[in-house]
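Open question from group meeting: does this chain pack into something compact, or does most of it stay loose? Before anyone orders reagents, we agreed to write out a predicted structure and look at it together. Recording both the input and the output here so the notebook holds the full record.
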Amino acid sequence: MSIRSTCRYAVSLILALAPASLFAQWVDYPTPGVPRTADGKPDLAAPAPRGADGKPDFSGMWGWENRFNCGAKCNDTQISREFINIAASLKDPVPYQPWAAELVKKRSVEQGLDPNVHCMPRGAPRIWTDDYYKRIFHVPDRVLILTERNIQYRQIFTDGRPLPQDPNPTWNGYSIGHWEGDTLVVETTGFRDDLWLDASGKPLTEQAKTIERIRRPNYGNLEVEITIDDPKAYTAPWTVKLNQPLVLDSELMDYYCLENERDLVHMRQQDPIQIPR
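Structure tokens returned:
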């Protein structure tokens, strides 16, 4: 089993000296309650589980799709295409404000500017494109998202509270959700002004509002549609769609990226990032 790491060339730090205990965690413990086909295999196309309120239950451990192998520079790690370029699937160009377009050019060359390189939080949108697993707990008044990287969490409140009027800016912002049929619509505001949406440097500012539409169409898949509405950085809102496959018979690993970190001093600041399309 390989260490879960990200591409150094994509400005993500890897675990240089993994402790032996990393391989002794509950990574092969069977997931209970998995629907099965007639031949005993997991039936990922089975109906999604539902909670007591009849709504889809998003609980589970989720991975990422659109993997590509970035080669020797990444230790042959398969990372998410959208982690590098969250807009990789868009047919039209991202509608940058002029200053934001120039900033992305600068960031794509000076990779050391990314908070990710310094083991800082990546922010809520990047949780969905991250090449670390996430576990969702769907409880009556909120959705909790735990992430492997830096032992972080995110809360989406579904108890009817409004968004805060004058929030203290944070990495993940402040999230509230409501149901539209079987889709959980999540509104988030209150971001910091210096966030990156991806490793190519697309900005997310304090004026941003994101809207996520989360669905579980079947047992084995989560669909996340993210709209970025940030008039400071973009001339119009834009939307990306991501798929998250269910991960069975595994568990989150306790990981903090500054532990045994060895990559930062070796990063070349003038190499432009290769953005997958």
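Observations to bring back to the group:
Residues 1-24 have pLDDT under 50 and may be disordered.
The two ends are 29 Å apart (CA to CA).
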